[in-house]
Amino acid sequence: xxxxxxxxxxxxxxxxxxxxxxxxxxxxxxxxxxxxxxxxxxxxxxxxxxxxxxxxxxxxxxxxxxxxxxxxxxxxxxxxxxxxxxxxxxxxxxxxxxxxxxxxxxxxxxxxxxxxxxxxxxxxxxxxxxxxxxxxxxxxxxxxxxxxxxxxxxxxxxxxxxx
Length: 163
Known about the structure:
The chain is α+β, with helices and mostly antiparallel strands. The chain has one domain: 7,8-Dihydro-6-hydroxymethylpterin-pyrophosphokinase HPPK (Alpha-Beta Plaits), CATH 3.30.70.560. Helix content is about 25%, strand content about 30%. The protein has helices at about 15-25, 65-80, 120-130, and strands at about 1-10, 30-35, 40-45, 55-65, 95-100, 105-110, 110-115, 155-160. The longest helix is centred in the middle third of the chain and has 14 residues, at about 65-80. It starts with a strand and ends in a 5-residue tail after the last strand.
């Protein structure tokens, strides 16, 4: 089993319900166990600014799936929940990203781990560090050391958790 961190986001429809539905579907996977869920954060859009705010969180899972198998399941869940890919960084019902997969590095056209924008996004770093303040990149750099670089990005913690 490998410890994996997955980022979840939604800015269309009932954002909280979309994220909860994704978590529920992940729980149905036989070789994956959710071990922790960070609090919810409301965040400004990143990349394409002209859209509604997001709800974001990060979950920690233990899984036997390979990175590619997990990516396939995540994309299947996104599709089932109505995700339509019209434009890069555009609005979405749900977005599920593999952020870290143990200490592995994957660099393929369709899958990059660690997530290529992980260190540039407060909406990912803050909930990740809620789960483990000592998390590191595969090269040993502490994620917490990158928080000052994203301090200008607004992330508002909501006193709610997914279940």
